[in-house]
Amino acid sequence: MQQRVEVSAGYSGTPLPKKLGIVDDAVFTVLHAPPSFKETLGDVGTAIWQRNLMPPIDVIVAFYTEKAALRDEWAKLTDAAQPAGGVWVAWPKKTSGVATDITEDVLRATLLKTGWVDNKVCAIDDIWSGLRFVMRKENRPPWKR
């Protein structure tokens, strides 16, 4: 069972939507987020917050505390992402005190063998980190929206 954890605001600098690639008319969805994530995310401008995994989705942000839950859902996430899109996997930082079996190294060991590669890391807040995975370019089919 996924553990619900509150998101704490407080990071400054680049707006979180921009860090995550939620810009302009991007279609995005968020899974398993802590209740305050919408507030932490802030203004998404003209981006479209889709409430399901109906493809094509430009940006998926999914929060996990358990590797098994991520493994179980990974195919659903990647099937919903448009070929040039990204899937952010958020996990609790070691310093957060939140119980988890996920680390950045665990994510890479688990997900790189699926044909996706990590290309960006992001501090979401003082509890959560995020690692973005994208489909390897050589595996991407031609795509037109």
Provide a concise account of the structure shown:
With 145 residues, the protein is an alpha/beta fold. It has one domain (16-137): Vaccinia Virus protein VP39 (Rossmann fold).
Q: In words, what does this structure look like?
A:
The chain has 145 residues and is of the alpha/beta class. It has a single domain (16-137), classed as Vaccinia Virus protein VP39 (Rossmann fold, 3-Layer(aba) Sandwich), CATH 3.40.50.150. It has four helices and six strands; from the N terminus they run αβαββαβαββ. A six-stranded mixed β-sheet has the order 2-1-3-4-6-5. β3, α3 and β4 (81-92) form a beta-alpha-beta unit. The radius of gyration is 14 Å and the shape is globular. The termini are far apart.
As laid out across the biggest beta sheet, the strand order is 2-1-3-4-6-5
Which fold does the CATH topology refer to? Rossmann fold
Structural class: alpha/beta
Largest β sheet strand count, sense and barrel closure: 6 strands, mixed
Helical content, roughly? 10-25%
> What is the count of structural domains?
1
Global morphology: globular
Which H/E pattern describes the elements? HEHEEHEHEE
Counting DSSP E segments of at least 2 residues, the number of strands comes to 6
Key descriptive features of the protein:
alpha/beta; Rossmann fold; six-stranded mixed sheet; 22% helix
What's the layout of helices and strands?
Elements lengths: L15 H5 L6 E5 L5 H5 L6 E2 L7 E7 L3 H14 E12 L11 H8 L4 E8 L4 E8 L10
Parallel strand pairs: 1-2, 1-3, 3-4
Antiparallel strand pairs: 4-6, 5-6
